[in-house]
Design a protein that fits this description.
eight-stranded mixed sheet, alpha/beta
Length: about 270
């Protein structure tokens, strides 16, 4: 008896901690499983918190030519053509107000910012710890952050952990901006209402695919809206507890081909 047809028309995968292993590579097994899903009629979209400048090189290395959703949903990017299809920017006046209110509550914050555009720089100020291997420009005077359009701000606190910082930020300025944790040490200030689901829905519409036809994979709380939008959400074994709590399924880790495990089962190949 032949296997049942692949049940989804869209496979949406987060990048760090999900599709990528710790060394920023994708295993051959996962590549083959995604290729098989594509051959079965499904599109694959990468949905990442990274803005385009921090995503483009990875996509090029992967040979990825499709649409990618970047910057927590702010940017829909055509990887094959190296161009932005849509981009949402952060209201800088509102973000500055939110930052002031938050610092009045918790004290000084270390700051970084992602400038808009395919070639937009990531800027970071004193005390901000940038993830190793990611290109960024140091600013002694963080006032320069505000001189050009931004997609988002990154904040770090010298004492508060990520979860605690997110909680107090949402309580203090959640009516002005969105606050999300995208990974260890990565707490972001975004335009109010912007999520990965925002960008994914726009990208899916371009492909003529519906939420009910989508399976999504992720590992962090910023993937929760994407899971809410998709028909099925699959968390990696290494995922944050908040994401596991809302997932339809928990697969193996990103180091253990968690995406491939699920896709092979769905394809009838496991």
């Amino acid at each position: 008896m032949s296997p049942a047809p692949f049940p989804y028309k869209l496979v949406a995968t987060d990048l760090d901690g999900t599709l990528l292993r710790g060394d920023d590579t994708v295993s051959e097994r996962t590549r083959e499983a995604l290729a098989a899903a594509t051959a079965a009629g499904a599109a694959h979209i990468i949905v990442t918190g990274r803005a385009v400048p921090w995503t483009r090189g990875v996509l090029d290395d992967l040979g990825y030519k499709g649409i990618a959703v970047c910057g927590q949903g702010a940017q829909v990017y055509d990887a094959g053509a190296h161009r932005l299809l849509t981009s949402v920017t952060l209201d800088r006046q509102l973000a500055g107000l939110a930052l002031s209110k938050l610092e009045a509550e918790v004290g000084p914050l270390a700051l970084a910012a992602s400038r808009d555009g395919v070639d937009g720089d990531v800027l970071f100020g004193p005390g901000y710890q940038v993830q190793e291997g990611l290109p960024a420009l140091y600013l002694e005077d963080t006032a320069e952050v505000w001189t050009a359009p931004l997609n988002k701000l990154y904040i770090q606190h010298p004492e508060l952990g990520d979860d605690a910082l997110v909680q107090v930020a949402r309580q203090t300025v959640g009516s002005l901006v969105d606050i999300v944790m995208a990974g260890p040490g990565i707490v972001e200030i975004l335009p109010l209402g912007l999520t990965k689901a925002t960008g994914l829905s726009l990208a899916a519409r371009r492909l003529g695919v519906k939420a009910a036809e989508t399976i999504a994979f992720g590992d962090m709380p910023n993937d929760i809206p994407m899971f809410g939008w998709a028909a099925r959400g699959v968390a990696m074994a290494n995922a944050h507890a908040e994401l596991k709590a809302v997932a339809d399924e928990v697969t193996t880790s990103n180091e253990e081909d968690g995406i491939a495990v699920v896709l092979e089962r769905l394809l009838g190949a496991a």
